[in-house]
Amino acid sequence: NDALRTAVDYDKExxxxxxxxxFKKEGNVWVGAGDRAEKAEMQKKASSAEGGRPVEKSTADDxxxxxxxxxxxxxxxxxxxxxxxxxxxxxxKLAETTRSEYHTLFEVPQDKxxxxxxxxxxLLKEQKEYHAWIDGMVDGSxxxxxxxxxxxxxCKYEPPQYCGYxxxxxxxxxxxxxxxxxxxxxxxxxxxxxxxxxxxxEGLGHYFSHKLLRTALTNCFAQATGxxxxxxxxxxxxxxxxxxxxxxxxxxxxxxxxxMTAGINQLDGEMLVKAWxxxxxxxxxxxxxxxxxxxxxxxxxxxxxxxxxxxxxTIGWNYADFDHEWREYVRKNY
Length: 334
Hints:
The protein is of the alpha/beta class. It has helices spanning 2-10, 15-20, 33-48, 60-65, 85-105, 127-137, 142-149, 169-189, 198-213, 240-250, 256-261, 269-285, 287-297, 304-314, 319-333; strands spanning 24-26, 29-31, 53-54, 70-73, 77-81, 119-124, 153-157, 160-165. Helix 3 crosses helix 5 (85-105), helix 8 crosses helix 9 and helix 12 (269-285) crosses helix 13 (287-297).
């Protein structure tokens, strides 16, 4: 396998090597056997998930935006949107599937509620609608609201709620999965105000959008045009394993310490893809140790030194060790 992967490093379109490694070409991207199986499994789960029921009632969100939104409610979600009811039913299914997969991954029983009550999602189409919602529904200073208007989405936790805008259904699908994972991680970690690890929050959002949809359209990736973001990172996340392998082989992937200590406004495309890949690795190969690491993080202030100490206590590695082991995994498996 090492020889075959080396052949692919030199020639990305080496058909015999690709096929010997289990890859098949889907459109313009080579997709591995495990990824194809996972994609089929997630499509099946999402199609059979609960789709909720239409709801006829007015909300404060309607008033803020100045129009009556379509609404649908399931066991765990209440979604509102100008998209038609058939689309809302699909989005509810994705939200419920994200929750179910999250509970499975983090070993939380399906009948245990991490979140009390329904998670609300307001899924808009236009920036002006989002700005109106911010003005009408978000407390705080005008400066704070103006800052939020420069984003594509906003997440609140008390009560659990997210709102954003995407002008097409694909972007909205990705947004629902990504932001649902944010809410669930918040209630799983229960951090002190202002404490978070951006690589973990954003990496996990992309972990779930890749797992369920094979896309990366939310947050920094949504600011891009065409098929890549401004840093050249593919929006189709099926490309990511090849992208990150190329970076590791060339020795220009970002340093693990920088990725894990970066602020939310410091994370660039390459750092986010590495954060996703780190989670792809540990959740597949070192899940028990990683869940212990998250438990240890719950009692810290989230700072770089305390993250590294939690790594040492639960996995036995510092940042440099963690980076080395991750690179070895990428070389052998991507």
